[in-house]
Amino acid sequence: MRVLSGIQPSGKLHIGNYFGAMQQFVEMQNQDAECFFFIADYHAMTSVQDPAQLRANVEEVALGYLAVGIDPEKSVFFPQSQVPAVTELTWALSCVCPMGLLQRCVSYKDKVEQGLAPNHGLFYYPVLQAADIIIYDSDIVPVGQDQKQHIEVTRDLAIKFNNIYGDVLTVPKASIRENTAVIPGLDGRKMSKSYDNTLELFTPQGPTKKKIMRIPTDSTPMEDPKDPDACTVFTLLKLFADEAEQQHWRKRYTEGGMGYGEVKKRLFELSNETLDPFRARYEELKKDMDYVRDVLNEGGKKARAAADVVMERVRSAVGLR
Ligand code: ADP
Ligand code: TRP
Hints:
By secondary structure, this protein is mainly alpha-helical. It has 13 helices and five strands. The chain starts with a strand and ends with a helix. The site of tryptophan has 13 residues, from strand 1 and helix 7.
């Protein structure tokens, strides 16, 4: 079984990326799967058009993957652009892709509403994403809920291609975890780099504590019962707390007499148990960027070799050989 996923280097990684996607990557890597994880630098060109910024973002996300536990001995880990053939497969897929399929994708409209330029790259971004997945014969794609539609487009394109050219491409499936599919941000909307509502994975304790203590809550008086399921602080606490501790706080909310300051303080402490080891590893790796670059180049070689196999099949199938 082959697992593949990617993350765009468009800013600092946050706990939505971790619990929605990266935690699954690490678990799958430690099971019996062949894993490919990459940094979607071609995709980031749709929004980051400053070359120095793009380079810095790629390094940031590379550190991030390694710091949360991606092990280059177990997974093929690489920048997307080290496999230029993926753009060739994008073209082949574009030629079987109905315009309507892309017009129905919500991410283009969302991103334009957020202020991104409505360029063609942004519009056909899902075709490049489909090529990313298909070029490694991927079976399973672990992602958060917001990527579900893109995996459906990928399946559609693989099936359309196979209908025309025979049984050439593997049709993948998404792996989305119900309970962590959409992590809310500090303002209650989906946590996202674009909304400035994130808890970052590698930011030190001090600024993280400030952000947690400022999470907006309702004005229910201290002594009254509160609804844990309507509270962002509780939703975030659930990510870090074991079952017994979740039950404890559920009871504290519903019986009243609890101030939000108290549960925020506990959220901060619990988050440190998960994030402190990530922060330490991130700082350590940052001192050895040569190692990080070597890892990416080695991963690039392995990824190119795997992609070549599928591309040769595609070229033959369409009549370019
Ligand atoms: P962002 O929205 O911050 O730009 P990305 O689009 O780079 O995040 O997402 C990278 C991965 O993290 C994807 O698999 C995506 O589904 C997942 N992800 C991002 N935000 C969340 C969230 N709030 N909840 C769950 N998963 C998320
Ligand atoms: N579109 C994804 C995101 O914004 C990143 C991505 C690009 C991806 N190619 C992929 C995810 C292939 C999974 C598989 O997060």
